[in-house]
Specification:
By secondary structure, chain A is an alpha+beta fold. Chain A is built from 17 helices and nine strands. The chains are: A alpha+beta, B alpha/beta.
Chain lengths: 412, 849
């Protein structure tokens, strides 16, 4: 081998980040898994397993994990489930790049029992060759549940695990399960509140859960695992077990946090507004209306309340209630150019009050220079303004009935 | 297919045969008579819908080679089809694939093309049949094919992966995306029945050595899913199609080379541009002469494809043609990669329908894109391989009518050799496509990918690689923490996607990007590997890319970049290197006439120590500049030959080194005296004093005949006093050096004719006292790719033919004492030396004594 590695060196090859003279395995004196975490070998010693139960009084950051109905969450997700149907899942893997050469070496699973205690079970792969047993034990664990809950599991954990089942010519257990990926929901709910919505950020700013000193960041997982395999020293795995367990607990707490937001009480304006948008996009107008209205009452944030007024105006207009729509838009017009445009449209096409229409066009133009996140295009407003002025100057000779349809077409 | 045949072709041929000034430059003419088709009925066992489909296309019989491949494939054989351009190779593979697709409802096939454009072109044929089937069958699930390459939108990929029965892709995509994600393709691989490798001869050298490994990985994955696909390969004519196919797929292959397709009368001619500078042996330019020929072609309204050697040449020629002949833009078109897809389709259509009269193209039109046919083809310079020449020439006149192809020769030794030996182009080709799938660097990279794709069993084989070597490499991967052994299997355990760091187009993973900072934007000109960067992109070097000269401002190896800027100057640069070669292991040796030949592993240590600026117009050295670049090491495979002491002595004794006395000029006796007195009438080598008679000699350090101007040759610092004995020895050394360097030059330039490689793929070193041959004079040719790709081993085998060709080339060259077309331009240290070169070759051929 020395000869080959010398030759490769001469050919200009640098292999891996680590040097070629790694220490030989020293499993005899190394720290074993059971010395690091309390657990047992199961599945004919193929898998190492730990279980910890958190009773119903357990507090994860600001959240207690039980006594939830998840009524509105179910509504938002179009999934029906009982609390005991959910299995929370998170995998630690040998890489993030995907493909057939990446595998999971640790799986965290979490569920509620009948007395609302939360169980966290962790499956660990002590040797890559045991993967078949590892996957079989996962299949067994999942059998009791109908719905997966993950953070980004739809694009990462589940496809990765599905590949592993294919590699062992085994049937994947995921086909028959529903899957709630909290990443998408969390991203939308906190889109205005947090610039970054990774699980770590959510944990710090929403759950207010500080991780302990055992924590090792997830990106170190591949390197720590190979170190463990090479040396047999399980001590660095302690941090991985901790990291993965907290991920599962945070996942459960995050679902509670989402539920809490859906209950509307105590939300910040940005949460309330984001939630209202979410309801609206799901076609749930009554919940959307309520959340928008609550946003307007959170006086602290002028911008969100104006935007909410604008959205309420749109909802009223669609319901054919012009007078409410006008009053909402006029409230929104303090800061939202979009609302001014809607008012201008109303006065141009419905009331045919061109002076009023001109006023709102001009207001829209002056606001659109200052407003944040406005989608109003100045060019279009200018065009509208010109047309309004032309129509006004045309006076009595102008036959609104004839041109009405054309203009409306343009606006819609 | 609309046939656009010009009755004026006869007029053109007559014109080029007459005794007009231009006719003299046609040094070779051959006519391949029309050949009728050899046909056979459509086979009985073909699926009935396929028969109907063929009927609907007016195909009532097959060419014999199409039937043969059908029969061989039905027997379960792998085949390689080596028939002419436009002989219906597509049907050879489509028939069995379609038949199987209809009979086995899940069967899939993988089509591999070397370019994306070819995949696009071939999909048309496939979809034509699939549409026919889907319209005529009441099957619920229609047949559907998909192109899966870098341009495939992400939104379509899942559907293509899961439901396309035929996938069209390229080896790069297979390597980078499909194999590493094979679990997403599980159902495709489970039913994989055929793999098609079109234009196999393209997969040679480094690229081919990679592709052979991608095929190994493909077979490994197929095996995992329980399938064992048959391979169908197609190739241009090469000398070793069976071996090449064998090396690529590592399975037994049946060659099908009896071409049953008809051809029209085809004239093939070589045009050698006239010499415009007798002394330097310079000929009129290829571009000008080709443009000149186009005049006759347009006058006779003959539809023509003009093949140019680079994209820039295409543009220049199109521009000049339009200016010169004032034709509408639609009549004269350019065609190359970089043009928009729609534009290309339009040009192809115009060619088919006869609307475009002249299409100037790179080799982009050489491969199987369906363009119908032109009446004539002009190749502006030898396209670089015989296979390319045949394919480009075959673009003129497909199945009927009269057509003509003209090769316009450049002044390179290879072009000029072909002028003298056109039989290399028209009779059996000596070209071998060479690969070395076991090149250690390439093998190592693909073993990484393999381990990533599937854990590697302890006793698992990988292609034909010796199991011990596999074990050694796998051990290395585990020792460097990339892989881990568990339960008798080796697992990939690193957060790396190995395929993404491996390009099928280069051997070393480190490449240097040449970036031009012209004006506001910083554009990428090209890429070279690190090893070549020191020679080609040192600071001050002129790097030529597509005809544009770039001055290298800075070479920044640490960030893998060279900064260049476009310049308009009339010189080029030649790096000066100090090269030492040490032998690592001699693998083969055999006595030959005059000495020995060898083959083995060597270490080339080179250091660029400066460079010369050479004038384009006069080839004079304008300036010499010193540099100190870092030392480079290349461990590779070499071929060398050495002259033994007796032959050396014999050549001397027989006066082989003698040539005519030079006329040193009228004031020579005065200069001679001056130098002797400057050197105090003492030999500057042995120190002996001059006695009364005979006088000591005065020696030209740089040989006199290397100068065109006697005054420059006779400058005092080029002259030195030597006693007659020392002078004789020195002269012999110079002569030896001249002979070696001349022979090296010609071997280096001719070898690509046999090896189907680029001249830059081979390194050359000559040494009058080589340690590789116990101090004897030696010429060393080596693979420029670390660990070699099979070039040097092959030179060892074909050594005799190569020497014979070298002798022919030099002996028949009309120059006086060396020119760029034979043994190279006269250099400063013993180049020039036609007599010495010829004597050496004769010694090695055994014809001297």
């Amino acid at each position: 081998m020395t000869q080959l590695s010398d030759k490769l060196k001469a050919l200009g090859v640098q292999l891996g980040a680590s040097s070629l003279n790694t220490k030989p395995k020293q499993k005899s004196i190394a720290v074993s898994l059971s010395q690091v975490v309390s657990g047992d070998y199961t599945y004919s010693d193929q898998v190492f397993e730990t279980v910890e139960v958190f009773d119903s009084k357990y507090q994860h950051g600001n959240f207690n994990l039980w006594l939830h109905t998840f009524k509105k969450v179910k509504h938002l997700l179009d999934v029906d489930f009982r609390l005991q149907d959910l299995i929370f899942i998170d995998a630690e893997t040998t890489g993030l790049s995907g493909g057939a050469g990446t595998f999971a070496f640790m799986l965290g699973l979490g569920w509620f029992d009948q007395s609302n205690a939360f169980h966290v079970k962790q499956l660990f792969l002590p040797e890559p060759a045991n993967e078949y047993g590892f996957l079989a034990s996962l299949t067994d664990e999942l059998a009791r549940f109908s719905t997966l809950v993950s953070f980004n599991g739809k694009s990462f954990d589940v496809p990765l695990l599905r590949n592993r089942y294919i590699l062992h010519s085994a049937t994947s257990p995921f086909k028959s399960m529903a899957h709630i990926d909290l990443l998408h929901l969390a991203r939308r709910i906190w889109r205005y509140r947090l610039p970054s919505r990774t699980l770590g950020e959510l944990e710090a700013h929403i759950l207010h859960f500080p991780r302990g000193e055992d924590e090792l960041p997830g990106w170190m997982a591949p390197k720590l695992y190979i170190d463990y395999l090479k040396t047999g020293d399980a001590s660095p795995m302690k941090g991985m077990f901790y990291h993965n367990q907290i991920d599962i607990l945070s996942l459960a707490a995050l679902l509670c946090a989402i539920e809490k937001v859906t209950l509307l009480d105590g939300n910040s304006a940005s949460e309330m507004y984001a939630l209202a948008e979410l309801f609206e996009s799901k076609g749930d107008i009554s919940n959307a209306k309520e959340a928008f209205e609550r946003t307007t009452s959170l006086e602290k944030d002028l911008d969100f309340s104006s935007q909410a007024y604008h959205r309420l105006g749109m909802i009223s207009r669609r319901a054919g209630d012009w007078s409410r729509a006008l009053s909402f838009w006029k409230k929104a017009a303090i800061s939202r150019p979009e609302a001014c445009i809607e008012l201008a449209k109303y006065y141009e096409h419905q009331a045919r009050d061109y002076n009023e229409a001109e006023h709102w066009c001009k207001k829209a133009m002056s606001l659109s220079h200052q407003a944040i996140a406005s989608k109003v295009k100045i060019k279009e407003v200018e065009y509208r303004l010109k047309r309004v002025i032309r129509k006004r100057n045309a006076g009595e000779n102008f036959d609104p009935a004839r041109n009405n349809s054309k203009d409306k077409q343009h606006d819609d | 297919m609309t046939k656009y045949f010009s009755p004026k072709m006869d007029q053109l041929l007559k014109m080029w045969h007459s005794d007009s000034p231009i006719a003299r430059n046609f040094t070779y003419r051959s006519t391949q008579p029309a050949r009728p088709a050899c046909v056979t009925p459509v086979p009985e066992d073909l699926h009935v819908v396929l028969k109907e489909y063929l009927d609907s296309k007016g195909i009532t019989a097959l060419y014999t080679h199409q039937l043969k491949s059908w029969q061989e494939l039905r027997k379960g054989k792998n085949v390689v089809i080596v028939t002419g351009t436009a002989s219906g190779k597509t049907l050879c593979y489509n028939l069995p694939v379609f038949h199987t697709a209809l009979n086995s409802p899940a069967a899939t096939a993988l089509y591999l093309f070397p370019t994306k454009a070819l995949a696009q072109d071939q999909k048309k044929n496939i979809d034509d049949f699939f549409t026919f089937w889907n319209n005529n069958s009441n099957q619920e699930k229609g047949l559907f094919s998909g192109i899966y390459d870098g341009d495939t939108p992400a939104s379509q990929r899942t559907q293509i992966r899961t439901s396309a029965r035929l996938i069209l892709t390229n080896p790069d995509m297979l390597h980078l995306s499909i194999l590493p994600h094979h679990t997403l393709w599980a159902s495709f691989f489970r039913s994989l029945r055929y793999v098609i490798l079109d234009e196999m001869h393209i997969y040679r050298g480094v690229f081919g050595s990679h592709v052979a490994n991608v095929i190994r990985r493909l077979q490994r994955i197929s095996h995992f899913y329980g399938s064992s696909p048959q391979f169908i390969l197609t190739s241009a004519t090469i000398a070793n199609s069976k071996d090449m196919a064998n090396n690529l797929i590592e399975k037994q292959v049946t060659v099908i080379d009896e071409d049953g397709a008809p051809t029209g009368t085809h004239h093939f001619m070589i045009y050698n541009p006239p010499i415009v500078h007798e002394l330097l042996g310079i000929r009129a330019g290829v571009r000008e002469e080709s443009i000149h020929l186009v005049k006759d072609l347009t006058a006779c309204e003959v539809q023509t494809i003009l093949f140019a050697r680079s994209r820039l040449q295409v543009e220049l020629i199109v521009k000049e043609l339009r200016e010169k002949y004032q034709k509408s833009e639609r009549k004269i078109r350019g065609y190359r990669s970089g043009y928009l897809k729609t534009e290309r389709r339009e040009i192809e259509k115009d060619l088919r329908e006869g609307n475009a009269q002249i299409v100037v193209s790179t080799n982009a039109l050489e491969l199987g894109i369906d363009i119908g046919s032109a009446d004539a083809v002009i190749m502006a310079g030898y396209p670089g391989s015989i296979a390319s020449t045949t394919q480009q020439s075959g673009r003129a006149g497909r199945r009927s009518g009269v057509s003509a192809a003209v090769l316009v020769a450049a002044s390179s030794p290879l072009d000029q050799f072909l002028v003298a030996h056109p039989e290399f182009l028209t009779e059996s080709s000596p070209e071998r496509a060479l690969i070395n799938p076991n090149n250690l660097l390439i093998l190592l990279n693909h073993l990484k990918c393999s381990v990533f794709e599937l854990p590697f069993g302890e006793n698992e084989n990988y292609g034909t690689v010796p199991i011990e070597l596999i074990h050694e490499i796998l051990e290395l991967l585990t020792a460097s923490n990339l892989a881990y052994t568990s339960g008798k299997k080796i697992f990939w355990v690193t957060d790396q996607y190995p395929a993404s760091n491996i390009s099928l187009r280069s051997a070393s993973s480190k490449t240097i990007q040449l970036r031009s900072d012209s004006g506001s934007h910083n554009s990428l000109i090209g890429e070279i590997d690190e090893h070549s960067a020191y020679r080609l992109a040192h600071p001050g070097a002129i790097y030529i890319h597509e005809g544009q000269s770039y001055l290298v401002n800075d070479l920044m190896i640490d960030i893998n970049e060279a900064q260049v800027s476009p310049v308009a100057i009339d010189y080029f640069t030649i790096p000066q290197s100090e090269v030492t070669i040490t032998e690592i292991e001699q693998k083969q040796t055999a006595p030959i006439a005059g000495g020995r030949k060898y083959q083995g592993e060597i270490l080339v240590t080179s250091q660029v120590i400066g460079y010369k600026k050479i004038s384009w117009s006069t080839h004079d050295i304008l300036e010499k500049i010193s540099l100190e670049m870092p030392k480079q090491e290349l461990q590779t495979i070499a071929y060398w030959l050495s002259l033994d002491a007796e032959s050396f002595q014999k050549l001397q004794d027989d006066g082989a080194w003698k040539n005519t006395q030079n006329d040193y000029g009228s004031n020579w006796s005065r200069i001679r005296k001056l130098v002797r007195s400057r050197d105090q009438f003492t030999c500057q080598v042995c120190g002996c004093k001059e006695k009364a008679r005979p006088h000591h000699d005065v020696h030209h350090i740089v040989p006199f005949r290397n100068f065109t101007n006697p005054q420059l040759a006779n400058q005092l610092d080029n002259l030195i006093t030597l006693c007659p004995a020392c002078h004789h020895r020195t002269e012999i050394k110079v002569r030896m050096r001249s002979g070696l360097s001349g022979l090296g030059y010609v071997l280096h330039h001719l070898a690509p004719l046999y090896l189907m490689c680029d001249i830059n793929d081979l390194g050359l070193h000559t040494d009058p006292e080589s340690p590789l041959a116990s101090g004897s004079p030696a010429i060393i040719l080596y693979d420029q790719i670390p660990d070699g790709i099979g070039l040097s081993e092959t030179i060892y085998d074909i050594h005799h033919s190569l020497l014979e060709s070298a002798y022919d080339l030099v002996a028949t060259c009309r120059c006086q004492d060396g020119c760029p077309s034979c043994i190279g331009p006269a250099g400063e240290q013993g180049s020039g030396g036609k007599i010495e070169t010829l004597a050496l070759i004769r010694a090695f051929l055994g014809t001297w004594l």
